[in-house]
Amino acid sequence: NADKSPHKDTASLVKALKAANGKMSYASAGMGGSYHLSSETFLSSIGASAVHVPYRSGGQAITDLIAGQVDYMFDMAPATLGYLNSTPPKMRALAVAHDKRLPSLPNVPTFAEQGFKNLELSNWIGVIAPKGTPPAIIDKLNKAINRALQEPDMVKRITEPGNVIGGGDPKAFADFIASESMRWSKLIKDKNIKAE
Fold first, then answer.
1. Given this model, what pLDDT does residue 103 score?
2. Would you say 22 and 49 are in contact if contact means Cβ atoms under 8 Å apart?
3. Do the Cβ atoms of 160 and 104 come closer than 8 Å?
4. Residue 115: CA atoms inside 13 Å, Cβ hemisphere, count?
5. Distance (Å, whole) CA 40 – CA 169
6. What pLDDT sits at residue 196?
7. C-beta of residue 117 within 8 angstroms of C-beta of residue 129
8. Which residue, 175, 174, 171, 193, is CA-closest to 184?
9. How distant, in Å, are the alpha carbons of 28, 42, 66, 140 from that of 16?
10. How far apart, in Å, are the Cα atoms of 157 and each of 24, 48, 149?
11. Residue 91: helix, strand or coil by DSSP?
12. Residues with Cβ < 8 Å from 4, sequence gap 6 or more?
């Protein structure tokens, strides 16, 4: 419950996590999933630990967060907007794990704005083609997809539920995939995380 939570911002959560010395808990929608990895990245960045409580679904995790059974969780904006915007709010967003504020949550600062660096964590979706696809075809698809991402109806359908529009060129996307693979592989190895 947002009114009952003592955590008003990321700094207060960090202070509590450090003081609890591993006794606080966080929820996720399963072992090895993106929210589990996001929480472990966060904990590593602040030098703290917490108990991971994996659920079978994000909905179950949210229910227990609202009930106070767990202390915090990472989740996507679209899954939480209804709880954040209810009257009274059932949840409180402490930070956005993006490089800029989300249009759907304009009053929620990014981690970086609050002084916490390298916590741009997101679920992303991209379009890829089979290896060996001719560059001319890749270029044609890329231009068409980037144009589609600018169409007002498409912009609305993507951003209204709380998502962010990407786009760009194939080389930048390939570099991003490579860096994300390296980033998450290192965390999984360092923390000995096993997927279920």
1. 87
2. yes
3. yes
4. 6
5. 30
6. 66
7. no
8. 193
9. 19, 14, 18, 51
10. 37, 38, 10
11. coil
12. 68
* 3-state DSSP assignment of residue 28: strand
The answer to whether the beta carbons of residues 124 and 181 sit under 8 Å apart is no
Tell me, what amino acid is at 123?
N
Q: What is the pLDDT along the chain (196 residues), one digit of tens a residue?
A: 566 788 899 999 999 999 999 999 999 998 888 899 999 999 999 999 999 999 998 899 999 999 999 999 999 888 899 999 999 999 999 999 999 999 889 999 999 999 999 899 888 899 999 999 999 999 999 999 999 999 999 999 998 888 889 999 999 999 999 998 999 898 899 888 887 6
CA atoms within 13 A on the CB side of 113: 15
What's the angle, vertex CA 110, arms to CA 48 and CA 58, rounded to 5? 70
Between CA 123 and CA 75 the distance in angstroms is 10
Dihedrals phi, psi of 25, to nearest 5 degrees: -130, 155
DSSP single-letter state for residue 27: E
H or E, element range at 25: strand 25-28
> Which is nearest to 180 in space by CA: 37, 10, 40?
37
Burial class (CB in 10 A: 0-12, 13-18, 19+), 171: exposed
ω into 89 cis (within 30 of 0): no
